[in-house]
Amino acid sequence: MINVTRTFLPPLEEYTRYLQGIWDRVYLTNAGPLVVELENLLKEYLGVRHFFYVNNGTIALQIALKALDIRGEVLTTPFSYVATTSSIVWEGCVPVFVDIDPETLCIDPTLLEAAITPRTQAIMATHVYGNPCNVEAIEEIANRHGLRVIYDAAHAFGTQLNGTSVLNYGDISTLSFHATKLFHTGEGGGIATNDDELAHRISYMRNFGHNGPEAFWGVGVNGKSSELHAAMGLSVFPYVEQLISRRQELSQLYDEQLDGHICRRPLLQPETSKYNCAYYPVVLPSEKVLLTVQNNLNAADIFPRRYFYPSLNTLNYVTSPQPMPVSEDISSRVLCLPLYYDLSDDQVHQITEIMNASL
Ligand SMILES: *Cc1c(COP(=O)(O)O)cnc(C)c1O
């Protein structure tokens, strides 16, 4: 069976080596030495001023909204994983959808201003499939209207824009280290910011607001991660560049072998200086074609994923649904093809043959 993704696991001994230390110390969580080591390593790799390793990418989004004290309307993309919208709703804010650019599939900055009301406080946009948003246009609008910017960078680990980490844009960026992501710690996530004051708030918020054992800075939540998860991260991290370069090779193979007249690929933001190849999405001519392709692949035990589907403006807990024609159209006919470290060239060939014959 070939699935859309397959978690990369390092040689078992490289993980168990860390376990020995955990057993010796009998210390499993609360900013343990492995959590601190991983946090520092990632901060340096990602090239950001402040970085917090937390227990998942959804709590990272929730803490970002809390740290910025957002309570009103949040302009957001309908084309993302459900956590982007659900975290806004969960924090008692109102998602206001802004449609996507049909080429990059990221939020369309030319539509942002029309959605701004006196209650708008922030923009939460996703670097879709690791492809950076048009961050300059977004920043310009945010500055003009006094809005804060949060990037859901769950897909963008390692992506660079203008020679610097994409996490350096916006007030806060969040990451996910879920087992299906490019870099993972089993479950896990991250919060990046270059703002000292925000970093100060986040450092308390992710640890119940504790200021010493008996004092509290303010309200907080449990965003901490454990030594067991950090050990996974530390043993996966040395392979990150290899994981990215193998994905680049496989993506290029797909590009060469797929019938490009029929499978359209999203356009990369032109200033992207390093793309992490987190996913391999193709936009098919219609949902009917997508279903045919999916059936034919499934019959050969190959399971691509309709990611992202459905468009988030259609969720049943969105109280004032707005039509999002571009996002709804793309969601109905986008498919992520299998892409992972140990996918073989032959398997890509098998997948593209079935696809080309279905089109
Ligand atoms: C995976 C993902 C999340 C959620 O991350 P978890 O670590 O699973 O909580 C949020 N946003 C996007 C775009 C994602 O792909």
UniProtKB/TrEMBL annotation:
UniProt signal peptide: none
UniProt keyword annotation of rRNA-binding present: no
InterPro entries: DegT/StrS_aminotransferase (IPR000653), PyrdxlP-dep_Trfase (IPR015424), PyrdxlP-dep_Trfase_major (IPR015421)
Gene3D superfamilies: Type I PLP-dependent aspartate aminotransferase-like (Major domain)
Alphabetical list of Pfam families matching this protein: DegT_DnrJ_EryC1
Keywords from the UniProt entry: Aminotransferase, Pyridoxal phosphate, Transferase
GO molecular function: transaminase activity
Cross-referenced CDD domains: AHBA_syn
Family recorded in the similarity comment: Belongs to the DegT/DnrJ/EryC1 family.
Matches recorded under PANTHER family: PROTEIN RV3402C, TRANSAMINASE
Full protein name: DegT/DnrJ/EryC1/StrS family aminotransferase
